[in-house]
Specification:
524 residues, two-stranded antiparallel ribbon, mainly alpha, single chain
Amino acid sequence: MSLVLVFLLSGCKVDPASPDYWKKVLGKARRSQDQVRVIETLRSSGKLNESFLPFLHEQLESDEKPDVKAAVARALGDVKNPASVEPLGKAVDLGAADSATNLLNKELASALGEIGDPKAAPMLLKLLKARDTYTRIEAVDALGRMHVREAVEPLMQMATDEGTEPFLNKKAIEALGRIGDARAVPVLMRMLTKERRGISFYVESSFSLFQMGQPAADALLAVLQGKDPELSRWVQHNGINPASYSFKAAEILGDLREHRAEAALVQQLTFRHEDPSIQAGVRARAADALARMRSAAAVKPLVALVSEPDSGLRREYAHALARLGGREALPALERAAGQGDWNAREAAIDALTMLGDARELPLLEKLAAAEPAKTAAECTESGGEGCDDPAALGKKHAEELARHGKRLEAAKACEADTGCWAKKLEDADKGVVERAALEVGRGRSSAHLGALLARMTAKDPDTRMALILAAEWLVEDTKDAAAQVRSALPTLEKQLTEEKSRTEYVRANEDLRRLVARLQRQKI
């Protein structure tokens, strides 16, 4: 607080909790920066409430300084009273060209959004046409949070406007997802593959389609089945590879747990394309989607594919089988564990220890013992690339395989006891926690959901993803679990906010974001 403001505040004898006190203090301030400080001090004082509205409304109408009016708007946004909608609307200056008035318009839009009263919608719709980008962003955000269906058409235009800044396109896409009106689905479907100046809109479009729910699932399923001729024509006209929709539709349908897509996704496991990377990408997304929706029909075809020589694709298949559970895949995983390069072998062994129990311990010991020789042979075959010390590398690989055995030891102790697995969520070994999470998630009981939620800040991204997936499964299976997670929403929302810039958790927190969105949608 400046010395001037201290002087102003100390000179008043009126009750400091009263509007009259702050009105007198504000009246003594001559410079606009001091007036702004008075209002900001009021905002942080803990005394601001609805009794201040007449004073603030009068100040908003009578003051001519944009920066002071902007501070008043922020204060009114804090109070969040619908009575402020009309005064805030009257203060808007759509013809503004100077930076100070643009800032005022931005704060007015923000305050109207904070209040969230339907009467604010007409003015927010007008602010979509403001000259200032930041004002438009605030208006877009507010309309999205308020679920204003009248905003759908202008937001669709903004989302696809190539003359608009990409960031504003993205904001419009996000707002359409929050509103959840099915009219936006065709636009969002196109924006899935749209790129401009190297900027992709996939993340925003896919999440908005997820928020749409059933209408989006219908559209995505039609694309996956080749039953959307209009989009097919648009794809051809714009030179977009149709396989990109196979890839993206599979991913979102998996997020939506759209079981109508199960047969089409199983077919995608054998998708063929002249570009091996595209073929692998589509197959991998199909495997992931089927695992998320716990497709029993996917087990047999995935078992047939798990000896895939490409280590990246084998890992996708093996990981899918690990999430699907059961022992049916173990013979195939055992064969795959002895084939291919180290990454391919380790992928199979990782999945094997996610599914096996004490019966697989001798096998794991055998594989670990054979690993130094396999590593040495691999180093010779590759001409020594990445093998400065083959013996040391082989020993390291064998130790990694032995660590996987901790999962099998946990399975020996717990067998099918979900309560035992819930206790293993506290294990020091991240691999054990990953398996324990999926075992609890497959248990179809809300009794141990709290143990999953308690570990949602796990530092290892793979472990965290398993915890989130397990919680999602329980939410899908029981109403009690859904109620428990809804009560934890503030904590999960806070975690997403605090970790927004943590790149190591981007993939895991996208899953958490979808869990939160699903629960938020149920509350509306």
